[in-house]
Amino acid sequence: MARRQRRGWGALRRLPSRRAPGRGRWQASYIGRDNRRHKAPHTFADRLSAERWLSEERRLLDGGDWRPPAEREVERWTKGETVAEFGKRWIAERKVKPGTRGLYESQFALHIKPVLGSVQVRHMTAERVRGWYASLDADKPTRNARVYGLLHSILETAVSDGVLSTNPCQIKGASNATRKRQPVILSVAEVAALADSDKMPERYKALLLLTAWCGLRWGEVTELRRRDVSAGCLSITVERAVTHKGGCRVDTTKASNVRTVAVPPHIRAALKHHLDIHTDDRPEALLFTPIRGGCHLNDKVFADSYYRPALDAIGRTGVTMHMLRHFGGTMAARAGATPAETQRRLGHKTAKAAMLYQAAVDERDTEIAEALSKLAEGAATQEET
Q1: Catalytic residue among 14, 325, 326, 345, which?
Q2: Which of 64, 177, 232, 300 could form a disulfide with 145 if both were Cys (CB 3.0 to 4.6 A apart)?
């Protein structure tokens, strides 16, 4: 728990941070003329900035121009802050990873700001939102759902802060996209053939098998290190991921969690072989490295040089590396995993997200039909007796 630091006037405290212990942001507060504690409307990256805010608040108190900071902040927005200004500040204040922040900035700049940027936040209405949403490209439902969700979140903050009375984003189902392109799920034999293809270097066979059977993301599997593999290759610990957006950067996983994934017995030999032949003995050694040297594998280079040629060799096209995660989710469901178990295995925050990675396959439907018949036969036998 963060401790408030005593001062001559006002108080500062450093907030806890799970991602960077001991390096959290600073919160400033003080007791006003109304004998109530007032906090700064936002946190600060360093102590000096928080000190400056307190100094300015003390100046207002001494000069007789003081009003509660929250009241002044709302007034500043309602005087005419535009969606462009509010949205920019909203994104800057989110406690998200750099990649997510970059995505928000891109979505906002490309799809929200051009139409709604000049509108004052207090003048946003459901009618304006509907008109903006109708202007989006209907052929990109997934992107539209994400952009709509971003605008909804931004304006929800405006509601919480008293700038708007209600959120004008009221289009039912707009945040839920219907897949336009269903993922292609390879068969078990096709996954094995892909890993064994002459077009796929032997040093990357275990990478494909782990991606498919353990449902790992590209950034997770390419950041695996020797110390992440348990004795006997029974399991792997997934606690980091690498991204190449804005330079090579290692961070926590997408869901910011650590999970241990059991390795199916039939691929443990391939993983052990890889460790023996292709991985340095150091605990920190990466499992999968570029053939021509360097640090982490690049997804585009890997796909162009090895993955797509291997797909062509087994007579399949249009199957992305990410679709191997769908294979992993589908196989887990067929093996009897519950949605919660699949959620944990794939590293999702919600069971709903995990369900998107489970595909209904004809073989499984046949198994269900046969099971239903057995239930019916069992019930009929009991009635006869």
Answers
A1: 325
A2: 177
pLDDT(382) > 80: no
* CA distance linking residue 122 with residue 237, whole number of Å: 48
Distance, in Å, from the CA atom of 79 to the CA atom of 85, rounded to the nearest integer, reads: 12
Are 142 and 259 contained in the same domain?
Answer: no
Greater pLDDT, 245 or 86: 86
* pTM for the structure as a whole: 0.62
Q: Does residue 357 carry a catalytic annotation?
A: yes
Tally the domains of the chain: 3
The type of residue at 214 is C
Residue 225 bears catalytic tag: no
DSSP at 110: I
Between CA 257 and CA 100 the distance in angstroms is 16
Q: Are residues 133 and 241 in the same domain?
A: no
Q: Are residues 62 and 89 in the same domain?
A: no
Residue 244 lies in a domain: yes
Q: Looking at 204, 306, 307, 357, which residue is catalytic?
A: 357
Question: Per the domain annotation, does 352 fall within a domain?
Answer: yes
127: left (phi over 0), alpha (psi -120 to 50) or beta: alpha
pLDDT at 3 over 60: no
User: Do residues 235 and 336 share a domain?
Assistant: yes
Establish whether 38 is a catalytic residue: no
The model's pLDDT over 276-302, given as tens digits with 9 standing for 90+, comes to 999 999 999 999 999 887 789 999 999
Parent domain of 142: 83-160
Indicate whether 81 pLDDT > 90.
no
Residue 348 known to be catalytic? yes
From the candidates 14, 296, 308, 348, give the one annotated as an active-site residue.
348
Q: Is the pLDDT of residue 187 over 60?
A: yes
> Token pair for residue 140?
């990109």
Among residues 14, 38, 111, 217, the one annotated as catalytic is 217
Residue 76 lies in a domain: no
**Residue 217 designated active-site:** yes
26/138 same-domain check: no
Asked if residue 225 belongs to a domain, the reply is yes
Measured CA angle at 271 (ends 270, 274), to 5 deg: 85
